[in-house]
UniProtKB/TrEMBL annotation:
GO terms for cellular component: apoplast. This is Germin-like protein. Belongs to the germin family. Oxalate binds at residues 56, 61, 66. Its main location: secreted. Mn(2+) binds at residues 59, 61, 66, 107.
Amino acid sequence: MDVNAEDFFFSGLNKPGNTNNRLGSNVTAVDVNKIAGLNTLGISLALIDFAPYGLNRPHTHPRATEVLTVIEGTLHVGFVTSNPQNRLIFKVLNAGDVFVFPEGLIHFQFNRGHKNAVAIAGLSSQNPGVITVANAVFGSNPKIDESILAKAFQVDKKVIDYLQSQFWMDNNN
């Protein structure tokens, strides 16, 4: 009785996202947090805008498979299979091409072109979640002990200190 059309509506995907940032990309998520009517329906979507050479850096969706469709431009996309193979599966996509990123696998999209690119992603969850690898590992709060990361990545602690000192921005809106 309390449901109305606004519970099933979102406006604004016709406006380009702000790609004026260090990554050169912007993700506009349209999930249950933006459309209450998606609750329990098992779907959501995202619009991803890319400046030239913009990156949607390596990330994972712990609760969803993603189907990406390139609307404009050219994207280099890929995902890494799980251990022990850790095999990179990648493709260069043009407008109209579709690529699937299986649930939970680390994946990325990169605009290889000199012009803007736009993609839309369908996700198999109303709340897919996003874990950006660099943010999670080097930007956690509190920080993961540098000796743990130095051993895990087999690098000097100074490298870890440098990485942890960086600003790990989030391009997801």
